[in-house]
Amino acid sequence: MNSRFALLHRPLFVIMALCISVTLSLTSYLGVAKPFSSFDWIDVLGEGGMTLVTLFWLLATLFSRLKGRVTNLLFIGLLAMHLSMLLDLLDEFWTYPNSGWITTFESIPATLGMMVMSVALYHWHHEQISINDKLQQRERFYRDHSLTDFVTGLYSAAYMKQQLNREVQLSEQHAQPFSLLMFDLKKFDQLNNQYGTRHADDILRQVAECMQLNCRPTDLICRFASDRFIVFLPATPACTATVMMHHLQCSLTHTRFKTPNETQLSAYCSHVTWQEGHTGEQLIEQLCQQLAVQKLPNSVAA
Ligand SMILES: Nc1nc2c(ncn2[C@@H]2O[C@H](COP(=O)(O)OP(=O)(O)OP(=O)(O)O)[C@@H](O)[C@H]2O)c(=O)[nH]1
């Protein structure tokens, strides 16, 4: 509930107060008080409870909804039900010798109120569908433009490319080399077929964790494509990059990944170190070419 919403509904609060005051005044003006001994306390309790609950629903609606058609319909329906309950409660305390129509009338607002409420709920349902649609569109927008990979939580390829281009510019100014590693899991397709996508996704997540554990805090790991990862090693010369690549490759090979059976993985890997004049795309192209060579049937790595 939000008190700021209530400020939007000042006219509805006035209407509610007016209707309740008129009902109370009318019944006390037309009615004759019943003797205390004839009060039926069980009825008072039951009808009083319903009167309070409908009043609470009314207030909750005004404190939690914005202005609009659904709010107005809910207000009308709930107010009519509340007035019916109030009249029902009041005739526990008053009799109406010359105005029996009040007792006849008391159940009509409830019926009308319920009909209006039904219409309000129908429109509320449609309102909710359209809100959900908008939320889904927004969620898709953020997911599409997200900088992280949905499955592994690693950085996305788009983010890596952004960082790479920035780093190429910086390196050109400061002539400081950086390196990139690329890993491609071997026969991941078979794991997908053997264990199904859910378990294969789990493996990708565990691979991501394994790489994070074995990289330095300054390194940036991204999931480049399906079972392909890139590690960006800032301020790292070629010799250190080679050591890091073998270290990561060994870590992947020696880890037992949790699946229905424990699975061991191996990966093709390549590395490249920035040299003056190279663009980010060229570096990635070189990494991919090295992997393609390893995948050739006659290659040792294959
Ligand atoms: N579970 C899961 N599988 C994916 C995802 N993205 C791509 N894949 C699957 O990953 C597999 C990659 O297949 P390939 O590129 O042939 O790789 P591979 O089987 O490892 O082949 P080699 O690299 O030559 O050993 C395909 O079966 C894709 O459907 C994903 O997000 N989750």
Automatic annotation (TrEMBL):
Reactions accelerated catalytically: 2 GTP = 3',3'-c-di-GMP + 2 diphosphate
Enzyme Commission identifier(s): 2.7.7.65
SUPFAM superfamilies registered for this protein in UniProt: Nucleotide cyclase (SSF55073)
Family annotation (PANTHER family): DIGUANYLATE CYCLASE DGCM-RELATED, REGULATORY COMPONENTS OF SENSORY TRANSDUCTION SYSTEM
Gene3D superfamilies: 3.30.70.270
GO terms of biological process kind: cell adhesion involved in single-species biofilm formation; negative regulation of bacterial-type flagellum-dependent cell motility
InterPro entries: Diguanylate_Cyclase (IPR050469), GGDEF_dom (IPR000160), Nucleotide_cyclase (IPR029787), Rev_trsase/Diguanyl_cyclase (IPR043128)
Transmembrane segments annotated in the record for this chain: 12-32, 44-63, 70-87, 107-124
Pfam families cross-referenced by the UniProt entry: GGDEF (PF00990)
SMART domains named in the record: GGDEF (SM00267)
GO cellular component: plasma membrane
MF-aspect GO terms: diguanylate cyclase activity
Keyword list, A-Z: Membrane, Transmembrane, Transmembrane helix
Protein name in UniProt: diguanylate cyclase
Residue stretches making up the GGDEF domain: 176-302
Domain of life: Bacteria
